[in-house]
Amino acid sequence: MSCRLCKKCLLQVSKLPIVKSEKTFSTKFVPNAPQWNGTPKGSQKNQEITQEELSMLENLSLIRFKHLPIEVKALEDAIYHKLDNNDPRSQTNGKLPVSESGSVQAMSVQNPSQLPKKVDADGTLVTNTLEWTVTELYNVIVAESWLAQPEIHNPMYLLLVDCRTAEEYAKSHIVTAKHHSSLNTEFGCLLSVPSQLQEYDMIVLYDDIDGSICSALDAKNISYFKLHGSFGLFQTKYPFLCTNKVVSTKEQRAYETRTWPSEILEDCLYQAAADHATDEKIIKILGITHIVNVTLDQPNSFPDTVKYMTIRLDDKSMVDLGSWIPKTSQFIYEAIDNPLVSDKKNKNKVLVHCNMGRSRSSTIVLGYLMQKLNWSLKDASEWLKDCRSTAKPNNGFLDQLLIHERTVFGRKLTDFKDLPF
């Protein structure tokens, strides 16, 4: 999904001059996160940033990017020189041995698999580039910002338009959605004043059966997306994100909404921060059965009902998390079998978390997508970033993932500079 504060945006913010007053200033952001099909989601937005937020963003950008290589090619050469000198295949005719502990698995040279086609929760194929699956919409609604705040708390982040009848809307609708009549009556989203609608990061319509609302927006050159599935499909899968209340203001949003784990593979693999992994309500509602805990000291809160794999490592570039990937990938694989089989009998669900749900957990998830689904690091990274915009392995972990990719496929497939982090 669209990342309103992606790497490029943060770098832009870090270069802005310090503002001495407490007044806000405006700077343009253009969402630039990778998408399913390369289509940018979200409209250009004029975002207000306070002095305090600017300072926080500057500190975050320094933390995130101070170790970026000045010369990417030199880094890659160093990585692969190290691999060539230490790769066990150089002494084993191209085959990796399996250690007694099982921490390294034999992998043959192979071609990467293509990413699966976009299919909605009801099994229907989505071919329109302007349509979202219900899972894509879920990930947008529950997303957090780089400041670890729910994106949905910002009224200008997402405009959901319910195109059903007023009676159906009053009975139940997706949280924060407005009835389509608001486009003609409510200041701030008036169709007669297109500039108001252009202020939203994203506009998503659902259940516009006759296409009348789409046509009205098209006539005003307003960019929007459509939910491929119906409200009924969304409600069936995510009833906890549906309500009969009108949730519009910041205060209402702060009370009625929160972040949830990102759904990486439908109905089976989730990624989250530590506070999600220790929330009994979230674990029960999502039906989590297995958890990979990659933190220094976060407890395993539900040992009687959830199976855990615990890795006590810090989020530092020099930490060797890569050697754990075969073990964690096998743990996830044994829990959910083949996640791309729609009629699989296994109903287990795995949650991978670290402290913030950004670096260590992303590394474990990316390793699994490469090792068990046979995706290149570039494809896996774009998929993950599309599901969780704040995913950001530290650069040491990215080095280890690049090495792991070459271990899995027997050759280099991804350039460091092509990764969306």
Automatic annotation (TrEMBL):
UniProt xrefs under SUPFAM superfamilies: (Phosphotyrosine protein) phosphatases II, Rhodanese/Cell cycle control phosphatase
InterPro entries assigned to the protein according to its UniProt record, in alphabetical order: Dual-sp_phosphatase_cat-dom, Prot-tyrosine_phosphatase-like, Rhodanese-like_dom, Rhodanese-like_dom_sf, Tyr_Pase_AS, Tyr_Pase_dom, TYR_PHOSPHATASE_DUAL_dom
Gene Ontology BP, a term: negative regulation of MAPK cascade
One Gene Ontology MF term: phosphoprotein phosphatase activity
Lineage: superkingdom: Eukaryota
Domain Rhodanese, residue spans: 158-243
GO cellular component, one term: cytoplasm
Domain Tyrosine-protein phosphatase, residue spans: 260-410
The Tyrosine specific protein phosphatases domain, residue ranges: 330-388
Keyword terms: Hydrolase, Protein phosphatase
Residue stretches of biased makeup (Polar residues): 88-114
Pfam families: DSPc, Rhodanese
PANTHER family to which the protein is assigned, alphabetical: DUAL SPECIFICITY PROTEIN PHOSPHATASE, TYROSINE-PROTEIN PHOSPHATASE DOMAIN-CONTAINING PROTEIN
UniProt protein name: Probable rhodanese domain-containing dual specificity protein phosphatase
Phylogenetic classification of the source organism: Eukaryota, Metazoa, Chordata, Tunicata, Ascidiacea
Originating gene: Dusp4-001
